[in-house]
Amino acid sequence: MRAGLRAVLEAQPDIEVAGEAADGAAVIPLVRQLRPDVVAMDVRMPLLDGIEATRALLRTVAEPPKILMVTTFANDAYVYEALRAGADGFLLKRARPAEIVHAVRLIAEGESLLFPASVRQLAAEYGEGGGNRAARAALERARLTEREGEVLRLMARGLSNAEIAARLVVGTETVKSHVSAVLAKLGARDRTQAVITAYESGFVAPG
């Protein structure tokens, strides 16, 4: 799997594969040494799985990289737990080369949600149907403005900043400011975590 990913990614002129690790336990020292922009991490590993490796990475590394979970099944509960833990998106092992490259670029840019329909499906299945107290409390504390709430709903639908700008008839920079405000108020690392909070609090219905 690693050899295949390396071959696909190294064929791109704008992507460099900085290194490889055989297990989650080896990720943190490698990230500190190599400072990658994106880590593609298997969700299931023998010594330290992708969920715990993600938590450890975000807890111990300053300015951590974006994390792309690699998984066999899109509806895996482990995937949702990884997203809740701070992963930025996920990629199926059966993905075509073009999809792999697109996923890495999209995660690196951070301006739209990767596979929004799948994230919505995962939230519907594992997201407690708006009954997550911590998520509700985070949303209440955030006190989002009406416009920020609109932006969060559009983020949850998977729209990019440019698409949100077109929908709301405002400039892209204005949308970026609103997105930044939403993330800051929710205490979210990125769009994925903000959208999960929106689903788990009941602010956005995942269905």
For the record, give the distance between the C-alpha atoms at the N and C termini, rounded to a whole number: 33 Å
| Low-confidence runs | none
The main sheet orders its strands as 1-2-3
The biggest sheet, with number of strands, parallel, antiparallel or mixed sense and barrel status, is:
3 strands, parallel
How many helices? The count is 11
N to C succession of SSEs: HHEHEHEHHHHHHH
* Number of separate strands: 3
Shape: globular
Structural class label: mainly alpha
Rg, please? 17 Å
Report the portion of residues in β strands. 5-15%
* Helix fraction bin: 55-70%
Rounded mean pLDDT score: 92
Overview of the molecule:
With 207 residues, this protein is mainly alpha-helical. It is built from eleven helices and three strands, in the order ααβαβαβααααααα. It has helices spanning 2-10, 27-34, 50-60, 77-85, 97-109, 116-126, 133-142, 146-156, 161-168, 172-186, 191-201, and strands spanning 38-42, 66-71, 89-92. Strands 1-2-3 form a three-stranded parallel beta sheet, with helices on both faces. α3 links the parallel β1 (38-42) and β2. The two termini are 33 Å apart. The mean pLDDT is 92.
